[in-house]
Prior knowledge:
Blueprint: H1 3-16, H2 23-34, H3 39-55, H4 59-69, H5 74-86, H6 89-97, H7 106-114, H8 126-135, H9 162-168, H10 170-176
Helix pairs in contact: 1-2, 2-5, 2-8, 3-8, 9-10
Amino acid sequence: MNKQQFWQLIKAARNQASSPNDGEDVARRATSQLATHPAEEIVAAQQVLWSLMADSYTNPLWAAAYVINGGCSDDGFDYFRGWLIAQGREAFERIVADPDALAELSIVRAAAADGLDLECEEALSIVWNAHIMATGKQLPDDAFTIRYPELDPTWNFDFDDHSEMTRRLPRLAALYLE
């Protein structure tokens, strides 16, 4: 499975979900669909998933997750990026390129109004669960490698500094910090 096929899987799951904004439902549907693929494709999907996680491992996105979720641990950032993957390719690529654009998404605006966190831990288990469904076995230990990029040192500041966050993420700050 390549990146294009993985995104098609997510798109199909979003189209079948009761609400495409329900990351957990999207993840469950993607898991069920992926489980129908040959085991080799399922294993290959794990590398695609974790490559997307590496692609989205940036300080600006972490800062955005911090603002949206009122804080963001290492695990919390993983779950936030899982939620972002469940939003589909277009949203993922747009937000990785410009995290402040999250403020333009209706789901983010609704979450801000309702005080909800945006995260989807289940998205990180799509491939793991699909492999178990399809084969009855856990993924092989060598199913993927992950190499996170170095974080941008210019974003090495206290994310609780509202003035700095407002300067760097003005649209999100307007939703969450004011």
